[in-house]
Amino acid sequence: QVQLVESGGGVVQAGGSLRLSCVVSGRTISSDDMRWYRQAPGKNKEFVARIMGQNDIIYYGDSVKGRFTISRDNAKRTGYLQMNSLKLSDTAIYYCSLFTGPNDYWGRGTQVTVSS
Known about the structure:
The protein is mainly β. The chain has strands at about 5, 10-15, 20-25, 35-40, 45-50, 60, 70-75, 80-85, 90-100, 105, 110-115.
């Protein structure tokens, strides 16, 4: 059974940084896409970042480009989202997902709150 568990969320002041982690169990991840999404209260889920399997090509949502960095450690089955220069508008629940082709697995999310 594949499970994803996010961690690293919390409360941070605007301008600060956080590093989120997403630990995967139940399968190796080197061939899979790992993605981060977020959902703020009352808003739709928003794409944040993606790192493709095998070739590590990376994409970012426009709102986080230049501030967030996605990475992965396949040996640890873990993905990361380094978030710098955080803004109030980054407040949301952050979810990681693992896209394997036929399946798309999701974690339960971790709350990130940016305060003024």
